[in-house]
Amino acid sequence: MGVSLKDIAQRAGVSLATVSNVVNGYRPVGEQTRRRVQQAIDELGYTPNLSARHLRRGRTGIIALAIPELNNPYFAELADAAIREAAGLGYTLVMESSGADRDLELLLLDGSRRHIIDGLIFSPVRITRDDVLARTGTVPLVLIGEGVYDVPHDHIAIDNVAASRVVVEHLLALGRRRIAFIGAGAGQDRQSAQLRLRGYREALAAAGLPVDAELVVATEQFGRRDGLLAMRRLLALDTPPDAVFGYNDLVAIGAVRAIGEAGRRVPEDIAVAGIDDIEEGRFSTPTLTTIAPDKEHIGRFAVQRLVALIEGAPLAPPADLHLPFRLEVRESTGPLGDRHRAVG
Amino acid sequence: MGVSLKDIAQRAGVSLATVSNVVNGYRPVGEQTRRRVQQAIDELGYTPNLSARHLRRGRTGIIALAIPELNNPYFAELADAAIREAAGLGYTLVMESSGADRDLELLLLDGSRRHIIDGLIFSPVRITRDDVLARTGTVPLVLIGEGVYDVPHDHIAIDNVAASRVVVEHLLALGRRRIAFIGAGAGQDRQSAQLRLRGYREALAAAGLPVDAELVVATEQFGRRDGLLAMRRLLALDTPPDAVFGYNDLVAIGAVRAIGEAGRRVPEDIAVAGIDDIEEGRFSTPTLTTIAPDKEHIGRFAVQRLVALIEGAPLAPPADLHLPFRLEVRESTGPLGDRHRAVG
DNA sequence: TTGAAAGCGCTAACAT
DNA sequence: ATGTTAGCGCTTTCAA
């Protein structure tokens, strides 16, 4: 074991409590004493034993960020911001993957790690509002993403229905009329898929267009491969779409690949757009039109709310926060002839 | 506070030690007793308080994976494997980012979190062999990647010189003669950049070709944008290259983008290859030729070695492990006319 | 302004 | 096979 408070106390000729107060600043310490203690700390190279502190305080200083897929770049970028914010507030953030599995999500919700984490930032995709209401776990909880609404917890997300509408309106403004949606979710209640699908439907309805069921493709997951496979099915239709809206950027990128493999061009033959604004889409060929949520903001804000909750700061009641987003029009829906404008 | 061992002991009418033994299995417990204790545990919903356990044991059950950039997909894919392996062995893995900063790396090396982590898997890029030899930290350490060699720690990596040679030999076999290298590292000692550059040089030398200094481009970082900017400089040369080898897949993808923006084609005009085999390169247009290290293997193996070290298992002395890799030839260097073969 | 001491929940050495 | 108990390092109440 390393250097402990007791070692410092002995060295400085003071009591344990005094050293603790120099370290934590809970109550005033005389200037003389403080100096002696600080010197001992420096000489011996003391750092607090966190396990002991946590045992005593009943807190661990660890918060978790639970997301469906670890290697979805959207979450990686979000996590990056969250980790930095957490570190700045004296917390360590650990990432947990639910694998988009309902049972695992329920476990996380009920505090599978309740003794190791002080709080949870959760991006659920399979559980429902009722699951959250019925939860027995008590660790502070902040929800992100569009999984669940109307629950007594902080909830940070963009308005997915509105975002989807903006994308589809953009495609309509380009003159596209057979607009497909990839990623409707395969039977399970991926709530965010429902919301994005709803925005898609609303935009079509507002334009007086019918929703053609064969243009709405469900997928098992929401990765590149899922987008690719779904797009192949769309290309096999008698009348393929002239535009595709992907559930997220990964799905859209998979669709772009499938279109190229079929010898068609994006955007000339088929325009493609996604949601998330992952960096990949800013360098792909063609670059990808997308909805850009402020990931940095979401990540930092979620951590701030959670830490406030943990530390019992007086704060506003649970809020449903809709952060702004913007449409990034790039080559995959750009006007023709606009290919290969320099990026970066 | 929640339910403690004492609560269970009272409920089951046994001693603390017995409950502890039911939970941990350190010594045998009678069948009758075990059943009663287990029932109490189930009824009261007991879970061990990890802070207490850690305080007592002197270990935290947390290991760290320190990498240069959190949102480099290569590391995300590696981390995914490592996190699963760690969980399987009863450890929680936290990710730390060094930001490829030398001071931060030194801090990590000397145990900036010594009280919170039991061990460290470290992928350094700026520190040197001497830094590692001089380290004062004592937490068990496993090195991954090509940052440092010949130090008394486990070290897991692919042979970067050999891998680079394979890539360049492949480009040579395609008949390319002006082969550029992007990502030589800008002055700082990014050891892995040196190694990959060495492989590049060796392959050219073996083919009896000179190394043209203007075809070797240093970059600040190793992301998509760096590849893009470097490639623009190469395209501005009097005689641009007919092939490009990127330090990693991200750099290569940036280069592909720059080539397209300049109105040239990959691979017809310029062939491009990288290292890492990130999923992005399997769906990009064109798909990216690359070196595929076994990320799953590296991640799991690093965790296994580290945990063995932590738990003091008798094990072989520190080893320098070179894991196998293979060349994945895809469209970006494929024979002409091979575009858009179906992937997936 | 400072000190003494209890006790957070657990494990492991020592007893029985 | 089971029980008793010391003590990991820290924070915090009560006293001085």
UniProtKB/TrEMBL annotation, chains A, B:
Q: Where does the HTH lacI-type domain lie? A: 3-57
Q: Which CDD domains match?
A: HTH_LacI, PBP1_LacI_sugar_binding-like
In terms of InterPro entries, this protein maps to:
HTH_LacI, LacI/GalR-like_sensor, Lambda_DNA-bd_dom_sf, Peripla_BP_I
List the GO molecular function terms.
DNA-binding transcription factor activity; transcription cis-regulatory region binding
Swiss-Prot/TrEMBL keywords: DNA-binding, Transcription, Transcription regulation
Q: Name one Pfam family in it.
A: LacI
Q: How is this protein named in the record?
A: LacI family transcriptional regulator
Query: What is this organism's lineage?
Result: Bacteria, Bacillati, Actinomycetota, Actinomycetes, Micromonosporales
